[in-house]
Amino acid sequence: MAPGAIDFGRADDAVGRLIALALEEDVGPGDQTAEAILPLGARGVGFVYAKETLVLSGVSAAARVFRALDPRCEIEALAGEGDALDSGAGVLRIRAELRALLSGERTALNLLQRLSGVATKTRLWSQALAGSKTRLIDTRKTTPGMRGLEKAAVRAGGGHNHRGALFDGVLIKDNHIEAAGSIALAIRRAKAHVHPLLKVECEVSRLEQIDVAIEAGADMLLLDNMDDATLREAVRKVGGRVLTEASGNVSLERLPRIAATGVDYVSAGALTHSAGSVDLSLLIEQSDLQRKP
Predict the structure, then answer these.
(1) 71 neighbors 124 (Cβ within 8 angstroms)
(2) Active site residue 224
(3) Which CATH class is domain 14-121+276-287?
(4) pTM for the model
């Protein structure tokens, strides 16, 4: 998203529902502090800015918080998704009712801080794969209700998305295999059930499972919890017949070694489940109530 552009979406979309829930949780029937101090209708200008170096994500979601509280507010994006910001750089400028600015401050900042934390971590991890063919992808280990936003934050940081949910991809894991009886049975049943254009990925944890999975019709293999030497041998054994994904025990320090094995993708739940929040703040720049000199 370019600076100045805001996508407010629909009030009933997933982000709109998330914001409504968050505001119900935080504001509830009313903000006791803002309503006690600020007269109804008084307006002001709020400035959201970075307080540390970060990669930005969640601009539209944060802006929508203020729009939900004051539909007449005017919002200017000062930076866009995926922008690398230094401390002090502006993110949003909001002209709105003062009550809306102060009541929405925490919810908006919580979204920005969390999503920018995901984007910042993803940028660092994706840079560790620079120069290789291996792509960094996310997982379903996301905050409930925030998957779409967190996966967008991964993209903003330079990563790529795995399947979005259970309904848009087939990934046969160890428990599916155990329940079905064998790798071959699980794959054949999946291939017979799903649309022919939908890829079927299967988890393998041992080298001897690779040929079984490929011969049964797997389109992609998840190489689970393999050390570097085993990963290298697994990629050699696959021989380009299907796509490969490394998963398990992935760390920033290990990423270059994983890429050196020649694997196509490396997935990391840590991009979302272990990303910390970065520091942003909101400052009231102007208020109708400020005394004139």
Answers:
(1) no
(2) yes
(3) alpha beta
(4) 0.94
